[in-house]
């Protein structure tokens, strides 16, 4: 198959343009739209991770009514935090039961008809900056979706470079 026939490249120009922006939400929205062609997700969120407080704060949401930007979640002591934020390994929840076990907001997720999830740690220089999260309306996750989510996390990484970290607001003595 010739390279110009690969669907994988469709939409990359929009992601590249957004990556040059100083507005991370532009990049996150472009990555969300790009990833939708192979993930077919119904909700995408992007969270910044604060290791000092073990909280994640929402930087982007494809559904700001249900999951507003600025919302945060306490993740200290959870298996999910250990796997995704500390060990920097993806979480793949293939059904409602796995979502129920890992997320306090299971009822809100279920009310949106979402049945599976892929949470990908966004990592640079061996530091977890946050996560990009994709939720689908069908149970089950295919290997290609996992790889697509991993690619989306890589494409979203520059957006974290323009977002102030909690340390930016602290004085250094």
From TrEMBL:
This is GAF domain-containing protein. InterPro entries: GAF-like_dom_sf. It comes from Pollutimonas nitritireducens. It comes from the Bacteria.
